[in-house]
Amino acid sequence: MTDRPRSVRVLVVEGQPLLRDLLARLIDQQPGMRAVALCDSARAAIEATERAIDVALIGPHVPDGGGVPLGEALRARSSRLGIVVLAAPETRDLLRRVPAEDAAGWAVLSKNLSLTSPALVYALTSVAAGRRVLDPAIRAESVEWRESPLCRLSARQREVLSLVAEGLSNTAIARRLALSPRSVEAHLRAAYAVLGVGSDPARNARVDAVRAYLAHGGAERETAMGEIPLI
Description:
The protein is α/β, with parallel strands linked by helices. The chain is 45% helix and 13% strand. The protein has helices at residues 17-28, 42-48, 67-77, 92-95, 117-128, 136-147, 155-165, 170-177, 181-195, 205-215, and strands spanning 8-13, 33-39, 55-58, 82-87, 106-110, 133-134. The chain has a 6-stranded parallel β-sheet, sandwiched between helices. The longest helix has 15 residues, at 181-195. The protein is elongated and about 70 Å long.
C-alpha cells in the first residue's frame, strides 16, 4: 500500500474576515491542499510559523504590515516556507521589494478583478514545490518602475508631486500633509533635480515636473493578470 502524498499546508494571513474565510474555503476545496491556520495580523502569522506550514498566503489587508516585507520575515523564521503575496496594483513601493530572480518559492500576484482562482491555486502549488511565480503585470511594472526616475524620489517627494498633479497649490499641499509651505517647496526643488527639470528659465518647472511624473507612471493605473501558467 502506497502512502498518500501529503497535503500542502497553507497559512492564510488577511485582516478582512470575509476575504480570509473565502481564501481558506478556496484552498480547502482543492485536492491535496488545506488551510491549516488563519491569521488576521502579521504578529499572529509570525507566531503561526511554529506550526507545520508549507506556504503562507499573504492577503492585501494586513493591518500591522503585510506584503513582501512580511513574507521576508516569515521566510527568515522558516527558510523552506513558500510565500504568496497578493499585492494591490497601486502598491508601487512593494514592487521594488520583489525578490531577486533567483529567489525560489515566491509568488507575487496583482490583486485586481482579473485575478482568477486557478491562477492563485497554481501559485500556491508552485511555491510549495520551490518554484517562483510572478504576475506578468507586476513583472512588467517592476522593471518599468526600477528604470523610472520616480523610483529615485523619496516617498514624500512623490506624495507632493501627486498633489501638484491634482492641481493643489503649495499652501494647500502644506495643509493636506501638515507641512510648512517652505518644506513643500524644498521637496519640490529636490524632485525637480531628480527629474531633470527646472534648469531652463524659459520653462515652468512645476508643469514640467507634473508632465514627467505622469509620463513615468506617477498616476495610478490598473494592471491586468496575464494568462496562467505564470512565469
